[in-house]
Amino acid sequence: MAMKLVVIGGGSSYTPELIEGVINHQKSLPITEVVLADIEMGREKLFINTEFTRRMIKKAGLSIEVKGTLDRKEALFGADFIITQIRVGGLDARERDERIPLKYGMIGQESAGV
Known about the structure:
By secondary structure, the chain is α/β, with parallel strands linked by helices. The protein is built from four helices and four strands; from the N terminus they run E-H-E-H-E-H-E-H.
């Protein structure tokens, strides 16, 4: 059974960890195609991650097709699973996530909040 996984925000530095999970859970989640998609601004990182993902899959000895694209419609067509890993507002938003709580004597973190 063919299973397609699409990662919106595929240029993220977290993508290799996600792919490691796909590799480690291949028996229970038999993904046959991974499509990494991102926006134009993330083009270089997207294609770096696409090539790295291909090398990870090959080293694991798996038959998973890997694609990278800037076209979300193309990426999403026929998807069985969709994961998003985007930072709304870019790095400026992360800075605010971490600095605003400090004004109030608290520690802030981008994922968990204050």
